[in-house]
Amino acid sequence: MIPALARLRSSALLGAALAIAFSGIGWAKTAVVLNSEDDSISIVDTASYAETARVHVGRSPHHLIVTPDGQTLIIAMAGGNELAFIERSTGKVRRRLAASDPYQVGFSRDGKWFVATSLRLDRVDIYDGENFELLHRLPAPSMPSHIAFSPDNGTVYVSLQGTKNLMAIDLAAGKTLWTAQIGPDPAGVLTRPDGTLLVGIMGSDHVALVDPKDGAVIRRIRTGRGAHNFLVSPDGKTLYVSNRVAGTISVLDADTLAVTGTLTAPGGPDDMALSPDGRELWVTGRWRAFVNVIERESGDLKATIQVGRSPHGIYVY
Amino acid sequence: MIDALLHLIGQLQGMFFENAVEPALYRFGLMDWSEDAFDAVGFAIFGALEIALAYVLCRPLEWWRPAEGWDDRRAVRTDVVYTLVHRLGLVPMIIFLLLTPIGVVIDGYLRFQGYIPPAVEQLLPALAAWPFATFVVYIVLMDLGEYWRHRLQHRVSWWWALHSLHHDQRQMTLWSDDRNHLIDDVLATVWSGTIALLIGVAPEEFPLVMIGFRLIESLSHTNVRLGFGRWGSGLVVGPQFHRHHHAIEHARPPFDRTRGCNFAVMLPVWDMIFGTWRRAPGFARTGVAALSGPEIRYGYLRHQLEGFRRLGAAFRGLFSRRRQGFAAAFPAE
Questions:
Q1: Which CATH class is domain A224-317?
Q2: Are the Cβ atoms of A123 and B111 closer than 8 angstroms?
Q3: Domains of chain A: which residue ranges?
Q4: How far apart are CA A214 and CA A211, in angstroms?
Q5: What is the mean pLDDT of residues B74-90?
Q6: Least CB–CB distance from B129: residue in A10, A226, A267
Q7: How many whole angstroms separate alpha carbon A271 and alpha carbon A84?
Q8: Number of other residues whose CB lies within 10 A of the CB of residue A206
Q9: pLDDT score of B115 more than 70
Q10: Considering only CA atoms, which of A130, A157, A145, A115 is closest in space to residue A72?
């Protein structure tokens, strides 16, 4: 049963609710799940694998990210047209920034740039990563969804889910460098240490290895139907790919990109996160309003946690 | 209990989508429609629930104390088709496909210029702590919008040509609420969608409450000798109140269709404020006096085509010096 206390909204009350929700268990044992169709976030106790609070935040929260200094959690609310900046240590909402339809958000590695894609309105917004001043706004037809940055922090790569394209944008100039066709419904984008890109081809059953210079597809690695998003293990050796249609997670060797295993993850596996000790893989079941917790070593399903409707972004403290 | 019910519906939605709809989207290369299709499944499930509740609650009333009785119920069966087509999502899906690209272009242009529509909580910050209160404000504002849309549907000749499809039903029942022309539905969606955009609260945030409101709309059309009394009829629209609005006498003065009465969809307060409230005894026959042929009795597609015919006649009347056709039967004030 969700505490009535959790049904609150507004900066001060949201912050108070989050602070109360977190105070009993501490941030170290908490996961935050964005329920995109409930306009809420679920606070989950990672020790007991139970939802402890559900807090109304704003319309259509899809993705979240931690600031480079690790102090603030930014929740992007696409339907609410705003970014909520939440202090990680206290749960207090420090700021709400008006932003047009922010769907996916990301920082360049040096923190200099903050990028938000507008899935519904076919745009990419580039902000100053420190003061969040909007620097560039450029059209990105169509359905720009996922983001990755080049190692030199000069380029952002955006998958255009409504087409078969990946586009590269010069962050400083705010100009498109190239747009290349890579496969049906490209979704998650990951930059590898050598600068090459991996893109989940959601309209098919593979991920594409892409040349960052011009978007040419180097090769395709079969994973499962609806290859969607990526997660790299902390040691950089293992790569996970969520296959949203197949209901599986492919395990790959991050260097060779060979598929070494497949994990069962029903419910439309979407975003993923690792527990702080690295032993557990937390994955949102987009269509079934739950989060699956999978033991990495054995591949066994450890827990299924009911959350709100259409859980998307997840962050595990 | 409400949370449990919502959870059950959510699980049904997810299971059906994951096992039936998503594989089809993948097979036909339509994966970019995943999120919209997921929403559509939810809409259909809630629509089915609305239909079931309306039937369980309102049909017994029709058996118990019918306002009218008919031997031939073919016209009623046409309204059943209207209800299924609308509430299970076919018509909303068509409208969504037609209007969403236009809406995205307009919304995108406004955002590109730096304009972000404020939400009602931003205009009334005190509401921010109470999501349900915000939703009530939304319902009140939307109902006000619906009242005036309804007035225009009766006042504007070409719009009346479309809306007359709803009024020509002489066998009004719980199924009649969705008896509308597709173009009229498009106009209604544009109208209410614009208002919703301006005030910023989406009805899908409170799905069970929306079912309650759709139930009120079904009840207001139910063929039952039931009024809510002196005070009740001032609080919420009921069968007797709405039957006066549909009364066949409204084809003739002083209650001709442009004046009419009882335009409110949910809250009669708007009729009180704007002088269109009518309380009267009895349960009038419904329909439009000038429209009585077989074209109004049955056939969903035939009825829709009839709407196009009336619309064409109305436009011809508008541009003709001699007001002919459909519009001539209903001269503007």
A1: mainly beta
A2: yes
A3: 1-76, 103-222, 224-317
A4: 6
A5: 89
A6: A10
A7: 20
A8: 20
A9: no
A10: A130
CA–CA separation, A146 and A157 (whole Å): 8
pLDDT tens sequence across A120-160: 889 999 999 999 999 999 999 899 999 999 999 999 999 99
CA distances to A78, A80, A144, B30 from B25, rounded to whole Å, are: 24, 28, 19, 5
Q: What is the mean pLDDT of residues A204-221?
A: 97
* Contact by Cβ (8 Å): B213, B121: no
Asked whether the beta carbons of A261 and A299 are under 8 A apart, the reply is yes
Q: Which of B49-63, B105-119, B122-136 has the highest mean pLDDT?
A: B49-63
Kind plus residue range of the DSSP H or E element containing A114 = strand A113-118
Contacts of B121 in chain A (CB under 8 A): 9-10
Separation of first and last alpha carbons in chain B: 52
Mean pLDDT in residue range B318-331 = 58
- Cβ proximity of B196 and B149 under 8 Å: no
All residues of chain A having their beta carbon less than 8 Å from the beta carbon of residue B38 are 287, 310
Per-residue pLDDT at A59: 80
Around Cβ B66, how many Cβ atoms within 10 Å?
Answer: 15
Tokens read off for A116: 């938000």
Name every residue in B having a CB less than 8 A away from some CB of A: 3, 7, 10-11, 13-15, 17-18, 22-23, 26, 29, 31-32, 38-39, 104, 107-108, 111-112, 116, 119, 121, 125, 128-129, 131, 200, 202, 204-205
Boundaries of domain holding B112: 2-329
Among positive and negative, which fits the CA dihedral B11, B13, B14, B18?
Answer: positive
Structural domain tally of chain B?
Answer: 1
State the Rg of chain A over Cα: 18
**Structure tokens that stand for A40 in this block:** 């809420």
β-sheet with A82-87: strand ranges across? A61-66, A72-77, A82-87, A93-98
**Alpha carbon distance A262, A285 (integer Å):** 16
Alpha-carbon distance of A285 to A310, in angstroms, equals: 8
Three-class DSSP category at A16: helix
User: pLDDT exceeding 70 applies to what percent of chain B?
Assistant: 80
State the ipTM, two decimals. 0.88
- B254 cis-preceded (ω within 30 degrees of 0): yes
Give the right CATH number for A103-222 from 3.30.420.10, 1.10.3720.10, 2.130.10.10, 3.40.50.1110. 2.130.10.10
A83 to chain B, closest Cα gap in Å: 13
